[in-house]
């Protein structure tokens, strides 16, 4: 990857395999990569299935220590130029697995980072969860979620989709906004993205260094 290339970390919190959450994540990533390519910007996309790290995430919450595999995921996410975050909607909000992963990140790790939010559920009546639950979460972490959040209901994946804005249009709009946000920023450092020193400020406790819950 060249020094001007950008990295996007995609986190998918789907619980099944395959899942509509991952399908949405892949489409958002592909659309964003296409938008960046049209701007002459090289991009590298890393997709992480949180279900593969569910036990490690729980152990991190309980012990304050991130096992190596989870630590690699954390480092890749927080050192990326932008994040695409997709979660299923359970009980009118993001999934517990999604929130647990966010909880193991350092509170300052996503500051200023562009984020494209995606969510999916069985019916379109859950679409508002993006704006009353997920967007405030990233805003609290001082990330910069783009204006368009992309929600997909089960009907969006079929020929009988009846939403005002078809899924493909929403994906393209969100991808364009994320690509614009990435293009306005300087590329992330070319130093080792898996070195904790690259995303944690000086003076952090050892617990913070490993994604723990220092300060509680």
TrEMBL record:
It holds the Pfam family FMN_red. Keywords: Flavoprotein, FMN, Oxidoreductase. Its EC number is 1.5.1.38. Residues 7-157 form the NADPH-dependent FMN reductase-like domain. SUPFAM superfamilies: Flavoproteins (SSF52218). GO terms for molecular function: FMN reductase (NADPH) activity. InterPro entries: CE1759_FMN_reduct, Flavoprotein-like_sf, FMN_Rdtase-like_dom, NAD(P)H-dep_FMN_reductase. PANTHER family: FMN REDUCTASE (NADPH) (PTHR43408). This is FMN reductase (NADPH).
């Amino acid at each position: 990857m060249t020094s001007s290339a950008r990295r996007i970390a995609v986190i998918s919190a789907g619980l099944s395999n395959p899942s509509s959450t991952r399908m949405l994540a892949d489409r958002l990533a592909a659309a964003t990569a296409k938008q960046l390519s049209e701007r002459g910007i090289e991009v590298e996309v890393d997709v992480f299935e949180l279900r593969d790290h569910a036990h490690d995430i729980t152990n991190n919450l309980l012990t304050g220590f991130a096992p190596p595999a989870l630590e690699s995921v954390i480092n890749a996410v927080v050192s990326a130029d932008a994040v695409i975050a997709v979660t299923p909607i359970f009980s009118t909000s993001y999934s517990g697995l999604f929130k647990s992963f966010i909880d193991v990140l350092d509170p300052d790790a996503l500051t200023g980072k562009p984020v494209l939010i995606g969510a999916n559920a069985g019916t379109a009546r859950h679409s508002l969860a993006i704006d009353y639950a997920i967007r405030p979460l990233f805003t609290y972490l001082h990330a910069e979620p783009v204006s368009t959040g992309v929600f997909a209901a089960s009907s969006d994946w079929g020929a009988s989709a009846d939403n005002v804005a078809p899924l493909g249009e929403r994906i393209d709009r969100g991808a364009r906004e994320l690509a614009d946000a990435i293009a306005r920023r300087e590329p992330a450092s070319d130093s080792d993205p898996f070195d904790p020193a690259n995303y944690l400020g000086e003076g952090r406790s050892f617990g913070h260094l490993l994604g723990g819950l220092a300060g509680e």
